[in-house]
Amino acid sequence: MTNPVSTSGANRVTIVQYGTRQGRKSEVYLNWGIYGRPDEPIGMDYFLWLVETPSGPIVVDTGFSAAGGANRSRTFLAQPIEALAALGVDAATAPEVLVTHAHYDHIGNVDAFASARVTISAAERDFWSSGMEQRAQFHHSIEDAELETLRRVEAEGRLRTFDDELEIAPGVRMLRVGGHTPGQSIVLVDTADGVVALASDAIHYYEEHDDDVPFAFVADLPAMYAGFDLLHAMVADGRVQHLVSGHDPSTLDRFGRIADGPLPGLTARIG
Fold it and tell me: Considering the entire predicted model, what is its pTM?
């Protein structure tokens, strides 16, 4: 299987939904009761992202694993590695992998990329080896074996870290914003249709961003608010044309859900 290469010379982003669950707003938003709003049901979709560039594919996050999903009763709609394969990306051919943060639903299949370079912020790498990962409020969101995989990747010399910002490829940048986790990062992609901000869990839901309601699990609340402010400013001043949330069920429809093709109903494309 060959990796896809853009023939237009422009980067392209594919949003891939691989899982879903149902919850309530009091579960997903921090101190929801202070807003005086009803505790309504809310869905949560799970995504990974594929950035196609002239020099090859870049995989942004790798989804939850079978074990990580089962431990939390999550529902697969597609297995992440199989979904990528359906889009022409073979994990064995070592595409670039970007990790926005180290929660179970973002690093669950890193082990399938046995030869790939993996990029993560230094703050994120450091935090999950600090001892804090065993405290209940943080351990809830990780799988010990998956953190060990990241450590093995580093021992093998395949882990690249950065402080605040890193150019990954022409028109592809990774930017640390913190908040949700100490090293939570976003990925900015220049495409023919404008700049795409893959917000990952800097913005789980558009409601979170629009109404200034932080997510329930947060390492640094002021930093989470600052991330909201940064993304608002990027959209307002034209640095970003397309803001892609980390978990909002409306995401695919906002960008045009693709009804046919290799993953019918589970993808949208920008660029």
Answer: 0.95
Q: How does DSSP classify residue 215? A: B
The model's pLDDT over 30-86, given as tens digits with 9 standing for 90+, comes to 999 999 999 999 999 999 999 999 999 999 999 999 999 999 999 999 999 999 999
Q: Which two tokens stand for residue 91?
A: 């994990």
Calculate the alpha carbon distances from 132 to 57, 110, 176, 184, 224 in Å.
34, 22, 20, 16, 19
Closest CA to 119 of 150, 147, 78, 76: 150
Helix (H) or strand (E) holding 50: strand 41-53
The CA-based angle 189-191-196, given to 5 degrees, is: 45
Chain Cα centroid distance, residue 163: 18
Element (H, E) at 210: helix 206-211
Strand-by-strand arrangement of the 165-169 sheet: 165-169, 172-176, 185-191, 194-200, 242-245
Look at phi and psi of residue 146 and say left if phi exceeds 0, alpha if psi is from -120 to 50, else beta.
alpha
> Tokens 């690093």, residue?
107
Phi and psi dihedrals of 59, rounded to 5?
-95, 125
3-state SS assignment for residue 41: strand
Q: Do the strands 96-98 and 56-60 form a parallel or antiparallel pair, or are they unpaired? A: parallel
